[in-house]
Design a protein that fits this description.
This protein is mostly helical and 496 residues long. The chain folds into three domains: 1-128; 129-278, no CATH class; 295-496, no CATH class. 76% of the residues lie in helices and 1% in strands. It is built from 19 helices and two strands. The chain has helices spanning 2-20, 27-55, 69-98, 104-126, 130-148, 154-183, 198-203, 210-228, 236-243, 246-275, 280-300, 306-327, 330-360, 371-374, 376-389, 396-410, 414-439, 457-475, 479-492; strands at 58-60, 65-67. Strand 1 (58-60) and strand 2 form a beta hairpin. Helix 1 (2-20) packs antiparallel against helix 4 and helix 4 packs antiparallel against helix 5. It is globular, with a radius of gyration of 22 Å. The two termini are 34 Å apart.
Length: 496
């Protein structure tokens, strides 16, 4: 009962805050409400995480809501992205408010949608019913569309419609996949009302219709893969991230992509067990993962927009995760570890990119230069975040990328090794060129006098903390975290 109340609390608090955000407040007060409310939402979810750690799993709503090690790990990643993004939003929108570009009514809508998206992503991760999980993902699709278009411009409207069009089609494909899996339960004897509970599907996986499960899984990969940004279904992502406010880009890269990939992972062991052909479903993820890495590396070489650069980097890292999950075994553990490192590094990259774009008045990296000297906190943070995303040792992303490679070598999947290393090398060179140019080269043409950047010690700590965590996790994984990730990997069916 206590566990059930913890799950209810984790969902109810952000939902109540979404309604409270509709109250009339000044822009400054509403931004403070955003920060404090997100911290409160995180605090309300912590008991559920601790209970899951202690008991192994929690259930509520007659089994329709459930947390285990895999979902709890994703909830932790969700909070690691949302809390700093809310704190950063105060600083980010303060400048827009002073310029009259973020009036109270816009701030009210933004705050309500912010907590609405947090609630829906929390629902996705705590849903034990595949249909309810789909509802959460579809709702988050609609909510994030309006967050992407917070500041209305022709570019943001175009990006929003592109996102809605592609992701709505993707969610329709995912819905068809869930219907096919529901149809596959006809010989299991499961009641219609509980046939889509993941725990019931897991226990009856050997009795599911193999052909229907295979078809359903392919539809789910295409549908949720569109939301995850897997190539060639990624076209909405660079436009949306480049036009969205940086706090929104941060939670999308750190939460939305993880949540969409999580939905695929929930169905992965079902597809493997029902088909009796171990490895076929994982092979689909390997192919899509490697293709995403190659496509992203090619686009990274030609990027000039600072936020589009980070967007294509997200496509590359989702590809690395998909490859790891597809390899299984050690690769699954490595992919979950990579997801943690990416959630720490990518939001920081968007925070720093947003601050630099405000300082220089443009997203064009050709007009930025010497940022380490001219905008020390955000410039240094951006350079170090890019180095972390490049997989420079001894960061945690270097460790996870190495473990994915080790998994491929141990399985003697040499074609995977070759393509994986080639894609990593191309992406590394593309980002290294940008790091050198934006960090130390002079801007062309030279920028006008930059406005003062009165950032205090709080912002120094804000930038430094995730970088320190990335470094420490690369040097030494705490036993508790290592054990947690291993249990989550076992749930997917990829224990090392």
């Amino acid at each position: 009962m206590l566990g059930g109340s913890c799950i209810y609390s984790a969902l109810a608090v952000p939902a109540a805050l979404a309604l409270g955000a509709l109250l009339r407040l000044s822009t400054v007060a509403r931004l403070r409400y955003l920060t404090l409310g997100t911290i409160l939402s995180a605090a309300s979810a912590l008991p559920a995480l601790l209970q899951t750690w202690a008991q192994g799993e929690l259930t509520a709503a007659q089994g329709w809501l459930r947390l285990d090690a895999l979902s709890a790990l994703h909830v932790l990643l969700l909070l690691l992205a949302f809390v700093p993004a809310a704190y950063y939003a105060e600083r980010y929108f303060r400048h827009a408010a002073q310029a009259g570009q973020f009036p109270p009514q816009t701030a009210r809508r933004f705050s309500a949608l912010w907590f609405g998206s947090l609630t829906m992503m929390m629902l996705v991760l705590s849903a034990n019913n595949l249909g309810l999980m789909w509802v959460g993902m579809e709702a988050s699709t609609l909510i994030l569309a309006f967050l992407f278009c917070t500041q209305i411009t022709p570019g943001s409207l175009e990006a929003m419609w592109k996102y809605l069009l592609m992701c709505s089609v993707g969610m329709a494909m995912a819905f068809l996949g869930i219907l096919l899996i529901a149809a596959a339960t006809r010989h299991t004897g499961l009641p219609v009302t509980t046939a889509l509970l993941w725990t019931n599907l897991r226990d009856a996986s050997q009795l599911l219709d193999p052909a229907l499960v295979k078809a359903g899984f392919l539809f789910l990969v295409v549908g949720f893969g569109t939301k995850a940004g897997l190539a060639p279904l990624h076209n909405w992502l660079p436009d949306a991230y480049s036009q969205a406010p940086s706090p929104v880009s941060a939670i999308s890269s750190g939460c939305l992509l993880n949540s969409a990939l999580y939905c695929i992972l929930r169905c992965l062991p079902l597809a493997e067990d029902a088909s009796g052909q171990v490895g076929w479903a994982r092979g689909v993820l390997v192919v899509l993962g490697l293709f995403s890495m190659i496509v992203a590396a090619g686009f990274l070489l030609a990027q000039r927009d600072i936020k589009r650069l980070l967007a294509y980097s997200s496509v590359e890292h989702i590809g690395i995760m998909a490859t790891g999950f597809g390899l299984g075994g050690l690769g699954t553990f490595a992919a979950l570890l990579h997801m943690l490192g990416h959630t720490l590094a990518k939001p920081l990259g968007f925070f720093c990119a947003g601050a630099l774009a405000q300082a220089y008045g443009t997203n064009d990296m050709r007009r930025m230069g010497g940022v380490v000297r001219q905008v020390p906190i955000w410039g240094t943070g951006f350079v170090l975040a890019l180095l972390a995303l490049m997989g420079v040792a001894p960061g945690v992303l270097f460790l996870s990328e190495f473990l994915v490679l080790k998994s491929a070598v141990e399985q003697e999947a040499w074609w995977v090794v070759v393509i994986y290393l080639l894609a990593l090398a191309l992406a590394f060179l593309a980002l290294l060129r940008r790091v050198i140019a934006i960090g130390w080269n002079a801007a062309t043409p030279p920028p006008e006098q930059l406005p003062a950047q009165p950032e205090g010690r709080s912002m120094q700590l804000f930038v430094a903390l995730p970088l320190v965590l990335i470094l420490l996790l690369g040097l030494c994984l705490p036993f508790g975290l290592l054990h947690w990730i291993q249990i989550a990997a076992d749930i997917i069916g990829g224990g090392a």
